[in-house]
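Slide 14.
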Amino acid sequence: MPVLHTLRRDARGLLLVLLAAAALHTAPAPAAAADEPGWTAEPATATAAARPGGARPYFYLEGAPAAVLEDRLALTNTTGQERTVTLRGADAYNTADGALAARPAASGAPAGAGSWFSFGAGATVKIPPRTRAVVPFTVTVPPASPPGDHPAAVIAAEAGREVGVRVHLRVSGPTLAALTVEDVAVRGRGAAAVVAYTLVNRGNVALAPELDIRADGVFGEVPGRGPRTLPVELLPGQRVELTEPWPGAPVFDRVRVRVTVTAPGGARAGAAASAWFVPWRAAGWTGLGLLALGGTASAALFLVRRRGPWRRPADGGAPGGPSGKPGATTPAPEHELTGASR
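Slide 15: predicted structure.
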């Protein structure tokens, strides 16, 4: 009987597995997500600037002032319907937290390198179904352009959706890597402590900064954060506000924190700030104890003062005193308690 029961249970399990497999086999394939864009934009690969693997994550263009630079953008329609994509150039910048972004069309005409782009008749492109279109464009560098990096992007848009392709654009000439560190501060306590600071690119080239945090306290050196490359590309003239976790922050100490930032090209800068680390809960209980002790001492002093000093009766006030009344006695002389023999 136990054997038959086990076989019956195994048969039931096998039947369930077969039914599940049949359901998976007959279920229709999931449809493509409704929010899939259906088209892509990327640098065309058949150019001299292509990487060995063929793909390019961005454009890289360099030329002297007054030069006309050329490249090509590839648009691929992966859907069964025609797509209409518009193209434009845009200025690139750092957001407040260091991310890279492109100026939206609503902000007006580009004021920087975004205005150097021209797509000619290809500013509006109709892409047939399942077709790849290659669109040439030019970048005309103004004659008075200063040397260095001029961040920009090519923006492809359709029906409210925009895709940005970054353009590393450099004007030939002397380059300067320079930065400053500002507004260093320590925020939070314990495991939540962070070092906040601001980086400003004072040069004319994009920087990949490396951060180093050192700290010294009253009781000696405090563990900081060793050197590490920040996940930020700081563009020329841009300012970013960053925070760095500080798990080694002390519990009780007064520390001086120094932030040093370096970058390829000889850029180096630093700034410092001081901060108190006090366990406020323990300090609060200690303060309450001292306050209670002070209150007790004040109450005791008040009671002593109310009692006042001891005084002897005034002369002549008692019977038999020096007033000459009967029974008067001469009071005993006072003794000076000075410790000297008399």
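Speaker note: The helical segments are 2-26, 280-307.
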